[in-house]
Amino acid sequence: MDDELKELADLMFPNVTKTVLDYEKMYPERNLKEGAIVTRFAPSPTGFVHMGSLLSAFEGYKAARDTDGIFYLRIEDTDQKRSIENGISGILNDLKNVDIVPDEGMIGENKSIGEYGPYIQSERMEIYHAFAKELVLRGLAYPCFCSSEELDEIREIQELNKERIGYYGSFAKCRNMDIKEAIERIKKGEEFVVRLKSPGDFNKKIVLHDLVRGDIEFPENDLDIVLIKSTDKLPTYHFAHLVDDHLMRTTHIMRGEDWVASFPIHDQLFSIFGFEKPKYAHLGLVMKIDETGTRRKLSKRKDPEASVEYYHKEGIPKEAVKLYLMTIANSNFEEWLDNNPGDDFTDFKFDFKKVSASGTLFDVSKLLNISKNYFSRQKASTIYDNLLNWTLEFDKEFHDLLVKYKDYSIKIFNIERETEKPRKDYTSYSSIRSFVFYMYDELFQNPKYEDTKITNKEDIATILNTYYDEYLDLSNKDVWFAKVKEMCDKLGYASNIKDYKKNPDNYKGNVSDVTGVIRVSLTSKTNTPDLYEIMKLLGKERIKERFTKYLNSNK
Questions:
Q1: Alpha-carbon distance 255 to 385, whole Å?
Q2: Which of 225, 250, 280, 299 is exposed most, by the fewest CB atoms within 10 A?
């Protein structure tokens, strides 16, 4: 070992007591079956989880599940300025809202499980320093004392001469500094970053065998990238990626396509250490079409739907969100779902070859349609239980009514449910109140006459009073409707729509107009689920009460 390099390395990293070999022994290969995928979700604790990040987390989670592998949560907080209080808890809550529970890694703000930690990067400094020291000892890393002004000057020269931007070759001013000079400058207390002494040749080519995009050719990396920062001595993303994903024995790196350009750096780092290289899947970005028709990246700042928490607050079932994520994760999932309607989506096998390389268009309308279908397949009691939980957090008034009228509420949710073609109204738990509010006296408000096709006050009063006094019969649906039609004939309304269409001048209206008056008076809505079922649940006493209030409020 070169004595000067050892002196330099010891001076740069005076507190390092372990070697790379020591860490290799501390974090051995995982004892998993052949083909098991080990992947991770590695966000920064800087706010809510973006839908694009959630998609990659979901895909990683699914890939690990399908192969009896491991999905773990690592927190990348090397940019300390961007970290927020309780950032880890927020990430965990967002994952939990779609049933993603890590097998390993962080499970709380200061709590983790697993044998490959710490799982917070800022707590792994001594590990990074040991790996960086190894490179210094091998002459593959060095201290760089360049100031920001000097780096700006290098960039200006490169731009002026139309050369590649970066710290490389002859532009790497500290690369070939005499070791003795470097030692002296460190002893004087000068600040420095640790840079890689890249062995790469930009004129040579390497190939990324991407699981999503196929083979992509790149020039070798020749940039002397920063490995360890000067101020907090934490690693850059590139170096932390190498150390963490190797020691945590990650087999598959799933990340956004915006990281594709970093592959030559990462590939080189793995090669320098002689580590087995992970497989990469660079996923298309999550896009949206804005109001101008422009296709752009889904934005945390501009788009509320970019936040995972948004769907929880809106009450969109996590099951529907997961189904939607699966449809945009694999292009063949919808066909599989159509062919296997009774199967759980966990039976579907994730396939990297079916991931879109061109980016994913996030379609809230499609998600809501999936949500509608999901609701239509649920039992009324299941909807009640889940709605009860959601309203406890977001709608206390409605929650109290659900508790007070449990059996009644379940019957409301069961209207037009247990049929061959169940009604598809609900898109979210937050939407249910707007569909059923009129079934609760505490929420019901009397409608106005102008809400119906028949607007004459005397005619409306005659219909409601005659119906209640002479024709109201809820014994069964056929009898109920026959009685309504019988009343129509008596009052001059067509009991048969076809007769009305043939000779509209012969009638004051038709049976649809009459039931419209009854419907609006009882619900304040012109479109509702089955009117007979509604009336049966309300009961004669409440029907009379609502008829009376309706007529009195419109005098």
A1: 37
A2: 299
- Cα gap 525→545, rounded to integer Å: 17
CB contact burial 501-535 (16+ within 10 A = b; e otherwise): eeeeeebebbbebbbbbbbbbbbbbeebbebbbbb
Q: What is the pLDDT along the chain (555 residues), one digit of tens a residue?
A: 588 999 999 999 999 999 999 999 999 999 999 999 999 999 998 877 889 899 999 999 999 999 999 999 999 998 766 667 778 999 999 999 899 999 999 999 999 999 999 999 999 999 999 999 999 999 999 999 999 999 999 999 999 999 999 999 999 999 999 999 999 999 999 999 999 999 999 999 999 999 999 999 999 999 999 999 998 899 999 999 999 999 999 999 999 999 999 999 999 999 999 999 999 999 988 888 888 878 888 887 888 888 888 999 999 999 999 999 999 999 999 999 889 877 888 899 999 999 988 878 888 999 999 999 999 999 999 999 999 999 999 999 999 999 999 999 999 999 999 898 999 999 999 999 999 999 999 999 877 766 678 989 999 999 999 999 999 999 999 999 999 999 999 999 999 999 999 999 999 999 999 999 999 999 999 999 999 999 999 999 999 999 999 998 876
Q: Which of 244, 297, 270, 369 shows the shortest CA–CA distance to 51?
A: 297
Residue 283 parent element (H or E): strand 279-283
Q: Domain spanning 289-376: which superfamily?
A: Glutamyl-trna Synthetase; Domain 2 (1.10.1160.10)
Q: How far apart are CA 51 and CA 281, in angstroms?
A: 18
CATH architecture of 449-553: Orthogonal Bundle (1.10)
CATH architecture of 3-17+124-283: 3-Layer(aba) Sandwich (3.40)
